[in-house]
Amino acid sequence: MLSWLIFLPTAGAGLVTLLPRHRPGLVRWGAMLASAATLLLAVRLFLAFDPAQSAMQFVERRPWVPALGIGYAVGVDGISLLLVMLTAVIFPIALLSSWGSITEKVKEFMVAMLVLETAVLGTFLALDLVLFYVFWEAVLIPMYFLIGIWGGPNRTYAAVKFILYTMAASVLMLVAIVALYLAAAPPGERTFDLLRLQEAALDPGLARWLFAAFTLAFAVKVPVWPFHTWLPDAHVEAPTAGSVILAALLLKMGTYGFIRFSLGLFPEAAVASAPLLLALAVVGIIYGGIVSWAQPDLKRLVAFSSVSHLGFVTLGIFALSVEAMQGALLQMVNHGISTGGLFLIVGVLYDRSHSREIRDYGGVAAVMPRFAAIFTIIMLSSAALPGTNGFVGEFLILLGTFRRLPGVAAVAATGVILSVIYLLWAYQKVMQGPLTAKRPEHLAEVGARETLLFVPLIALIFWIGMYPTPLLRRSQPSITAVLERVERRAAAARVSGSVACAEERGAFQSAPRNPPQSSRPLQSASLTLCRQHHR
Q1: Are 71 and 63 contacting, i.e. CB atoms less than 8 angstroms apart?
Q2: Which of 31, 406, 470, 518 has its CA 20 to 30 A from that of 478?
Q3: What confidence tens digit (pLDDT) does each residue in 453-509 have?
Q4: Helix, strand, or coil here: 143?
């Protein structure tokens, strides 16, 4: 089932290439049918998934390069299931949003979108590190073309910046994958299989370096502050469909990587580095909120808000509690729905007035009341109003963090206030007051196709906000298993460190009463390090 799910969009892309170029409507419908079929297959997977199991389900394995231990291995658990569903829902919406705005090279655009869908699904489902890396890098190619060909005036600069930032960090991850492969097992037993590598015993010093390389690649993709500078340029220059995919899905590849690989492969290093990542997350939450409030461009405002919202997700992951991590996973889905919806809203306004400047709008609600109602719902979802999906995710993150780190949770909660401020400020400037919008004669009410874009998003906003149980029930066993593995490995490391300290103290006590003068500093330093490790 999973291979069909992954490669169905690519098969659709192959069929789209055979359609006549002079019939763009047929090309659009061909791409939409391929993406809709993928959605139906994802729904079937969601219903067939056993929520009581924490292990990988529907696993498929095929030899690929058996001499090197490389295989085609895919599987799904409660963590990847939610992101697969989000991917399957967002892509048809993104394709529909491009119906009227993409008029040149329509076939190439649709092919790029479908290939991108395969790459994203493969990233979330891969269980072999080489296969994961192939899908991870494959995402860059269609996204580069989406920005560079169909983007705004500065699209070339934004596309190059996007690919350089993400590729530079990904190369470090590739080096770390090779080092992990060589260090995890002796020759003849080496493998790139994720599930086997999770149980490998690594030298603590090497594990810290490998954790740093993996986590840096994921931090750039999220992006965690201060690695966020590529994001606003890519969002502003990308077409609306590209911005929706970038915000809703590509950023989640980084946070998914934190859970699946940073915590899964290097739990001891993750526990040791958690304070640093929590600090960066809190800075990102506050920084993103303040900078969003200062933006004159509506699309840049939404882009910078992602830095703040993804800061909450990073906070929930490295708080290392079940509630916080469940909230982080749910917030990945929520951010894809609400921020994807906000980019669609910006796209609707831009299609009419060809401006993203907030000062060029005012009083839009008077002539577009249906659109104003849609904007209100999605804006309140992004601001985490109780009853919407955003509230459930952020509440769980703050609850789980508060139980372990009350001070950190209290500081991070200011981000909720900031999000309300900049979102209400932007809504008031654009939608309320007298009609002062630029080109008001073009502000036509949203039609049936544009309304259809928002209907599934609004339904998900209220469904998850009122009844998140189906998602939480499917994700909890897998998240609990991840955290239990982290705690087990961290506890084993503490016990090992305590035994080593006891041996060191025994050796010190059995040493001569008057050791040579040169050895005394070394003995003292060794005991000091042991005491610090034991604490």
Answers
A1: yes
A2: 406
A3: 899 999 999 999 999 999 999 999 999 999 988 888 777 766 665 554 555 455 545
A4: helix
